[in-house]
Each structure stands twice: as structure tokens, then as C-alpha cells.
């Protein structure tokens, strides 16, 4: 998605540890026009999949997920993050190691909001090692949901998550694919022309 790549080039900041900071439009300040366009793109890509729910994880997945839900007219559920949990009877839970904070969290979704007849689209802001997506897939598996695919705003293709998802036979659609963040420079896998 060209508009997104241009924004990453102009406002993204490469940090050490192969982290791209996009606080200017996605992770802290949010650009609603760009998020709307992102939602439109995901909705278009998954228009034929009879999606009934969008699943994401708090907090940075919420903006693109809500915009996608708005276009597909389906509810958006964000998994919550907890350090530890005692009562989990009415929750689906999975363990996720945070890429940026290097902490271990449990993510949870209430059993009330997903059921076996749901067709789910998983959305997240970034894909690195795939921990967040695999946590959501684990919850989808517990709930016996049909996962129609995964939509990622920014995929860091040089890290293993993308290949791991594709190896499971799951459809992955990433709107910007980063080949490298070496030397503080963002290089995309292919420059998009739309
Ligand atoms: P993964 O679980 O795939 O290893 O990492 C994805 C999660 O970590 C995303 O939900 C995102 O919040 C965070 N993340 C991973 N890489 C980056 C990055 O380069 N920049 C930012 N801002 N977040 C990242």
C-alpha cells in the first residue's frame, strides 16, 4: 500500500534491535484517515470470506482492526493482556512474549464474544516473530473458530513470523513488507504501486 509505505519512509524511526517506531501515525498518535484507508484495504482483500468477527490484541491492533470492522460491519474483539491470571473459567487464554518489551503476557478473550460458527479475520499492527498472531491463533483454536486469514499493517519480512504463518497454510495479507531496517534505513520487499 503505497500511502502507508510513504508514511513509514517519512515518519518512521528505526530503533536498535530491528524495531521500527511509528508513534507518529499508528502506535501513539493515530492518523484516522490512514487507518480508514487501511481498513478499506483489509475489507476489500477479505470481502469474499464471510468474516463475522475481527480479532486483534490490545492496544496497537485496535485502530486498524476497528476500521476494518467498520467497513465489513462486523464486531471487533481485542484480546486483553495480563501479567498473571487466577480466574480463567470464562476466558480463552494464550501466552505471548512481547517483541518490544521482552515480557511474557497472557492474552485473554471472553468466551462470551466468540463461538464455533464465527469466521474470523486476525488483524495486528506489526508482525515480527509471530508471537502475537500465534497467541490469537491459539485462542481461535480453543474456541474452534474458522480463521479466514491474518491482516498485518507492517510485516518485518526478515523476521520469522510471516513464514511461520504461511507454513501453517494460513492466508497472510501484509500492507507494507519490510525487507530490512539495516543502517537505520527502511527497505521494502517491493515498492507498492497502488
Ligand atoms: P511478534 O509477536 O510478531 O513477535 O511481534 C508483533 C508485536 O510486537 C506487535 O503486536 C507489535 O505491537 C510489536 N512489534 C513488533 N515489532 C515491532 C516494531 O518494529 N515496532 C513496533 N512499534 N512494534 C513492534
Describe what you observe in this structure.
The protein is an alpha/beta fold and 194 residues long. It has one domain (2-188): Rossmann fold (3-Layer(aba) Sandwich), CATH 3.40.50. The chain is 28% helix and 32% strand. It is built from five helices and ten strands. It has helices at residues 2-11, 32-45, 62-72, 131-142, 161-167, and strands at residues 13-15, 19-21, 53-57, 76-82, 91-97, 104-110, 119-127, 146-156, 172-180, 187-188. The strands form two sheets. It has an eight-stranded mixed sheet with strand order 5-6-4-3-7-8-9-10, with helices on both faces. α2 (32-45) packs across α3 (62-72). Residues 19-22, 27, 60, 99-100, 124-132, 161 line the site of guanosine-5'-monophosphate (5GP). Belongs to the purine/pyrimidine phosphoribosyltransferase family. Xpt subfamily. Pathway: Purine metabolism; XMP biosynthesis via salvage pathway; XMP from xanthine: step 1/1.
Strand arrangement in the largest pleated sheet: 5-6-4-3-7-8-9-10
Please give the share of residues in helix. 25-40%
Give the end-to-end Cα distance, rounded to a whole number of Å.
6 Å
Q: How many strands, what sense, and barrel or not for the largest sheet?
A: 8 strands, mixed
> CATH topology, anyone?
Rossmann fold
For the record, the CATH architecture stands as 3-Layer(aba) Sandwich
The total count of strands amounts to: 10
One letter per element, helices H and strands E, the order comes to: HEEHEHEEEEHEHEE
Q: Which ligands appear in the coordinates?
A: guanosine-5'-monophosphate
The average pLDDT score comes to 95
Decide which structural class fits the backbone: alpha/beta
Subunit structure: Homodimer.
Pathway: Purine metabolism; XMP biosynthesis via salvage pathway; XMP from xanthine: step 1/1
Family: Belongs to the purine/pyrimidine phosphoribosyltransferase family. Xpt subfamily.
GO molecular function, one term: xanthine phosphoribosyltransferase activity
